């Protein structure tokens, strides 16, 4: 009642039940046992201070869903499912650790230490040195199905607004299928694909997308051309000196390329990582 008194009239309130909430910072040791895969709170629990509990579960589901689909349709070996834990476990570990550190700041019980904390945070905000963007505390992928030593590998792909061929303006994700995609800022890099790489890409149901700053949106020869509204993609590509990127179905970057050899090499690494069996994908060659 003492806590509530400072916020409302407590004369007409009756507390029926009270309980202490204890948060957890837990991470499961094994995420997969043959056909059983754990996700969400079943394999990790986080303190609430970054608001990442549900977000982590959604990331688990998205990471696993497209890999299951590829395995079930024969475009990837079952070993691809092992990359689920390889990718998600370090990611969740880092997020949980950050949430714990935020909890220490928020839950300070010593009045003197709390006052010093408030002064420090106000000074950082005033000086512009405080990090206030939550996404900055969410790590990239560091292992798993990403290119070896590849530029931008493991980074989240940007999400520009584009003009679709049907005339509507939408986010790029609303236009693309949940498949792999090769995305470029000009038409020329699409011609870098060797015949073997192009055949492999078509077999994989991968998309090819050119995002330009001007012109007309359309779809010809299996290549979508869309015009972006805000220059986000063009600036991002220019900043990272990339000509083409391979993007995973969950919109993490597999890798970036600056020339034809690099792009075909990336396609080869991706096919190797998928380890497709049965009707195997043709292996790409570099020029």
Overview of the molecule:
With 287 residues, the chain is an alpha+beta fold. The protein has two domains: 2-137, FAD/NAD(P)-binding domain; 161-274, Glutaredoxin, CATH 3.40.30. It has helices at 2-5, 53-72, 82-106, 111-127, 172-175, 195-203, 232-239, 260-274; strands at residues 26-27, 32-33, 36-37, 44-45, 161-163, 169-171, 181-184, 207-212, 218-220, 223-228, 244-247, 253-257. Strands 5, 6, 7, 8, 9, 10, 11 and 12 form an eight-stranded mixed sheet that branches.
Explain briefly what this protein structure is.
With 287 residues, the chain is an alpha+beta fold.
SSE map:
Blueprint lengths: L1 H4 L20 E2 L4 E2 L2 E2 L6 E2 L7 H20 L9 H25 L4 H17 L33 E3 L5 E3 H4 L5 E4 L10 H9 L3 E6 L5 E3 L2 E6 L3 H8 L4 E4 L5 E5 L2 H15 L13
Parallel strand pairs: 7-8, 8-10
Antiparallel strand pairs: 1-4, 2-3, 5-6, 5-10, 7-11, 9-10, 11-12
What descriptors fit this protein?
eight-stranded mixed sheet, Glutaredoxin, alpha+beta, single chain, 287 residues, FAD/NAD(P)-binding domain, 2 domains
Rounded to the nearest angstrom, the distance between the terminal CA atoms is 75 Å
Strand content: 5-15%
Cα-atom radius of gyration? 24 Å
What is the correct CATH architecture of the largest domain? 3-Layer(bba) Sandwich
**What percent of residues adopt helix (DSSP H or I)?**
25-40%
Total of helices: 8
């Amino acid at each position: 009642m003492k806590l509530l008194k400072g916020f409302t009239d407590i004369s007409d309130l009756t507390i029926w039940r009270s309980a202490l909430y204890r948060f957890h910072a837990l991470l499961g040791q094994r995420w997969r046992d043959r056909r059983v895969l754990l996700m969400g709170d079943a394999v990790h629990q986080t303190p609430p201070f970054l608001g990442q509990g549900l977000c982590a579960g959604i990331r688990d589901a998205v990471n696993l869903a497209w890999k299951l689909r590829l395995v079930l349709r024969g475009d990837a070996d079952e070993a691809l499912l092992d990359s689920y834990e390889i990718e998600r476990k370090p990611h969740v570990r880092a997020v949980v650790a950050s949430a714990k550190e935020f909890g220490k700041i928020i839950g300070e019980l010593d009045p003197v230490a709390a006052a010093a904390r408030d002064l420090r945070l106000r000074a950082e905000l005033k000086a512009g040195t405080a990090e206030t963007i939550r996404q900055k505390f969410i790590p990239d992928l560091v292992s798993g199905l990403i290119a070896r030593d590849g530029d931008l590998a493991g980074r989240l792909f940007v999400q520009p607004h584009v003009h679709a061929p049907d005339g509507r303006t939408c986010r790029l994700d609303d236009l693309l299928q949940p498949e792999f995609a090769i995305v470029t800022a000009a038409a020329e890099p699409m011609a870098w694909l060797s015949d073997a790489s192009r055949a492999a890409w078509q077999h994989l149901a991968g998309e090819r997308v050119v995002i330009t700053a001007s012109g007309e949106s359309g779809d010809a020869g299996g290549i979508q051309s869309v015009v972006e509204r805000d220059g986000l993609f063009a600036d991002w590509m220019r900043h990272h000196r990339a000509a083409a990127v391979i993007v995973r179905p969950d919109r993490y970057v597999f890798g970036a390329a600056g020339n034809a050899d690099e792009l075909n090499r990336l396609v080869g690494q991706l096919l190797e990582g998928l380890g497709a069996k049965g009707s195997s994908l043709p292996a790409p060659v570099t020029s």
